Amino acid sequence: MGRLAKENILDLSISERIQLVEDIWDSIASVPESVQLTDEQKIELDRRLDAYHADPGKGSPWDIVRERIRNRRDV
């Protein structure tokens, strides 16, 4: 894929732009060691992980959250 100019991105439909963002995020997430976190971010992630371990049933799986976001009517 070549470089995308802002004009080309704006020509995409909203759903195509969302898919583009998801694809970009997936490419970043595939190499997590390349993402540098601040100490504050590490502390927050540890806090959330501890909360999950304390009550694993409290949250929702990502696929359910993603569908809930996609199906929102007020966006």
Please outline the major beta sheet: none
Distance between the termini: 30 Å
Query: Portion of residues in helices?
Result: 55-70%
Elements, N to C (H/E): HHHH
Radius of gyration: 17 Å
Question: Can you tell me the residue ranges where pLDDT is under 50 for at least 5 consecutive residues?
Answer: none
Shape: flat
Average pLDDT level: 90
Count the E strands.
0
Structural class: mainly alpha
Number of helical segments with 4 or more residues: 4
In percent terms, what proportion of residues is strand? under 5%
Tally of separate domains? 2
Task: Give a description of the structure.
The protein is mainly alpha-helical and 75 residues long. The chain folds into two domains: 1-34; 36-75. Helices cover 63% and strands 0% of the residues. The chain is flat. It starts with 5 loop residues before the first helix and ends in a 5-residue tail after the last helix. It comes from Geobacter sulfurreducens (strain ATCC 51573 / DSM 12127 / PCA). InterPro entries: CHP02574_addiction_mod.
Give a brief outline of the structure.
The protein is mostly helical and 75 residues long. The chain has helices spanning 6-11, 14-29, 39-54, 62-70. InterPro entries: CHP02574_addiction_mod.
